[in-house]
Amino acid sequence: MKKRRDLVLGIETSCDETSAAVVENGTKVLSNIISSQMDVHRQFGGVVPEVASRRHVERITVVIDQALREAHVSLEEINAIAVTQGPGLVGALLIGVSAAKALSFATGVPLISVHHIAGHIYANHLVKPLEFPLVALVVSGGHTELIYMEGHNQFQRLGRTRDDAAGEAFDKVARLIGLPYPGGPQIDRLAAQGSPSYDLPRAWLEPESLDFSFSGLKSAVIQLLHKAKQKNEKIVLPDLAASFQQSVLEVLITKAIRAVRQTGVNHLLLAGGVSANSALRTQLLMRCEQEGICLHIPPLELCTDNAAMIASAGTYLYYEGKYADLSLNADPGLALVSSST
Q: 79 lies in a domain?
């Protein structure tokens, strides 16, 4: 008997990557085109929303056409169109949502709304099928969350950041010490040359809490730099980068392991742009091996924003018949909820 072939076109424009992809049966990537705006925004020291939106307008049809060509499929063969509805930059999201709605209207193909965080989790599914129940640690520039899943499209948030996301803290501290955008990879490289010799705080919050807070750590770095300048003391930047990074990673790893223990699961997923951090990958893997926990980490090309992860997550909404209509609108504050709610 011939295996069913379901093809989903994914579209992702939540921030500064314009991406389109074709995924077969939720797991096989046939194409994954990413047009990055990093060089454009680097001169501003961060993402400029208006510039990002204009770039998406310029690139969206190009990357969709390229994704279809590389996958060797036509629009007529696509079973569903999955698009990031939110969260993200509203202007950027609107470009992807508008393109997906136009394609759905023109072809009659079902339209699927996907949550950006769900997409990051499903990036792991493109490497190895998700094994439920599981806990996902999602760490990116805009999000730091712990998510519990009992099955496809079933999400329960266990913890979240109360202020700055981890990736946001990386970028802000990088800017403070004169590193170029994006700051996360720069701090990762600089930290590898130093040792965590500066005493910086860890925000544990209430006992057994699974929430995060990184604004106090950022303030501590500002205070350290200010005092050093007043006293005319030299800051060893590799050591400061290593100290800051270790403060963030220690909290992330400890709370991820705590979430696994509290839920009684044995599978932990790492997801989001900060999952590309080499020290986080290494230290979390070592800790999970010590604790007997099965850890799943996506390859580097699937850590940052991409449309393949959106198509994968959208496939399982398609299977459940969870379609959106043409009134779909971008939602920069979209909540992550189970598809059954």
A: yes
Which tens digits make up the pLDDT trace of 151-191?
999 999 999 999 999 999 999 999 999 999 889 999 999 99
Domain count along the chain: 2
- To the question of pTM greater than 0.90 for the whole model, the response is yes
Contact 144, 263 (CB under 8 A): no
- Is 337 contained in some domain? no
How does pLDDT run across 301-337, given as a tens digit for each residue? 999 999 999 999 999 999 999 999 999 999 999 999 7
250/106 same-domain check: no
> pLDDT tens across 221-248, in order?
999 999 999 999 999 999 999 999 999 9
Domain range spanning residue 277?
129-297
Beta strands in the chain (DSSP E): 7-12, 17-24, 28-36, 80-86, 111-115, 134-139, 144-149, 156-160, 267-271, 294-296
In the chain, the largest separation of any two C-alpha atoms, in whole Å, equals 76
Residues 165 and 256 in one domain: yes
Amino acid residing at 35? S
Q: Is the dihedral of CA 231, 237, 240, 244 positive or negative?
A: positive
